[in-house]
Amino acid sequence: MSERLKSPTRRNLLKGGALLSGAALTGAALPARANDPAITNLQPWMQELGDGVDAMPYGVPSQYEAHVKRRTVEWLTADRVSSINFTPLHELDGIITPNGLCFERHHGGAAHIDPSQHRLMINGLVDKELVFTMEDILRFPRENRIYFLECAANSGMEWRGAQLNGCQFTHGMIHNVMYTGVPLRLLLEEAGLKTNAKWLMPEGADASAMTRSIPLQKALDDCLVAFKMNGEALRPEQGYPLRLVVPGWEGNMWIKWLRRIEVGDEPWHHREETSKYTDLMENGKARRFTWEMDCKSIITNPSPQAPILHKSGHTVLTGLAWSGRGTIPRVDITLDGGKNWHAARMDGLSFDKSMHRFYFEFDWDGKPLLLQSRAHDSTGYIQPTKNELRAVRGENSIYHNNGIHTWYVGENGEAENVEIS
Amino acid sequence: MLKFLSVLAIGTLLLTSAATAGSFNIGRAATPAEVAAWNIDVRPDGQGLPAGRGNVEQGEEIFAERCAVCHGDFAEGVDRWPVLSGGDGTLTSDRPVKTIGSYWPYLSTVFDYVNRAMPFGEAQSLKPDEVYAITAFLLYANDLVEDDFELSQENFTSVRLPNEDGFYMDDREESPVFKKRDICMKDCKADVKITARAQVLDVTPEETKAAEEAAAATEAPKAEDVASAEPAPVAEPAPEPVALDDALIKKGAKVFKKCKACHQVGEKAKNKVGPILNDIIGQQAAVVSGFKYSKALKKLNGDGLVWSDENLDVFLTKPKKFVKGTKMTFAGLKKEKDRVALIEFLKSHSQ
What we know:
heterodimer; A: 5-stranded mixed β-sheet; B: mainly alpha; Cytochrome Bc1 Complex, Chain D, domain 2; 14 helices
């Protein structure tokens, strides 16, 4: 096994793969071989009784899925309380991210809030300054919508070049969840907007008291005040009991532990929209209020944490694409570093501002591959290369890196994060 | 009966929808005191600033006590904690240093953020005058005011930060990558070369060593096999374990949240802003390896102080009173029951 196989996850996979694929290794025409003891031996689970109901009142994944977990990159931040971890995209399929695997980003730790002690206040330029309890929120008409949430800094470590081996680390600051919530518009109408109302400032109840300025138009358009994710209560690390949903816009604006919405006539220019989440250009000036998440895609399998285990033959390539401006009608795939491109098969559900799943099945000849995916969104925008982005932004803008990503796959099926000419 | 009910239901529905046009009549009016308690945000035009004042000298003292442990005495930043001063002229360099002086557009952002979220782990514990003073000191640390400067609600908006004009509205949609392009699908380029590889830098996190060791341990021979091979060393009789109160430990774990910004306990604990607190009960002061203690703590070590229930209780009541000169900026736990619970929690990590 080569030295660069650092992640035990990957190592275990390869080890397991080598055992499992013993038969497949020898080629397409399956030769006669010894009987498989997995079949011929009586296994304990075939004979002994399993767990009764309620052995686990709240179910958890199989013990054999323990490697499917969020992971952090310690050197990124000073401390774990104000830090980030990453969704294991390479372990998932379909478009929904399970609640326990949704990446975490908090600025003052994950607050644990008693919902009976939680309030939502609306104040500022409204006719009536109001307070809602959680019971009050549940009396408003609600909607269910599937949206991706991507941190503006997702792929931010890749501006200066290929850095991290694994789509979990390069693209894992994203999740895609079905939210149940009340349209923010209804809550604002309940308070009554004054005619000079133009901006909102949602605020969190956690120790960072996170705030962002949001233009009123967006709030009236499609924002939700959500209390459920994938059908169950929000997880504490996702803002239980109440979070703002700002579809298609950078994750930092989706205020968690939402306790207050102030209505005003100007933006507040608070920390997370001045010192952070502004995009520094090469000339020393910075873009502010870069809200929409640009159209982007990533091949999740194969990837450095999910090598090809079966050698040559029929191979499934899959990945995710999304856009903060609409849907994804098309993704192109290249196996040869961009010499030739092929249409990927878009599969499953397609929702506005949601992740989309694509597949590309091909017969691998066992030779090295240079894999890329290129997404097109419903506005006609086409995902750019990293170098096209660098030409506009330089390398110091941190946020909004939606460049095309490249995996090199060697003859042994292992993948590496690279950049190509 | 059923019919009657459904007629009634329709009638009710109609009534409801008529009565709620534009309003659901849900929620209640916020009282002025409630709005005041939460409405602390400050804008560049000064809206939201509380009455108050503070000068550079006062700010320097408060900063040294409450902020410097992470941000450094001169706001230069400790470890990976934010650098708040310097960075002039670096925005076009390879490594921009984005500080209050070099990057932030508005002073109100400093006041608002310090007031709502600092000190880290003790948010909203500063009085308005203290926030004015800290803000004044940060202006001084960035060479933007003289050392006799006083900041107040009255003169606040007259202070402008150098990079106010360094920002412009998102214009991504005007950039070349947004232009409609023809896409090549076949024979798009003759040659492809790898120009960068993650292996060169490889900063991908490895799974923790502890996990690997745990995995190795499961493959190790079982205890009885080892025992039969060689006699186990005779251990000294362990001291009688003190029975701990689980409920109290749980309460203590909650209290410990106040400490977590700086201290860690448990198997994976590391020294952070403060030292690891495993085995603290019965431990001599200032002996955690790899941690840089203050002179004051080192002196306690020299004096032979050993942490016990009793002296920890006094220390935790008001750390700076017990150890004048400690780096620990924590104000203290006023409630005795919090201290008792916390000490029980620390004991549970001392066995």
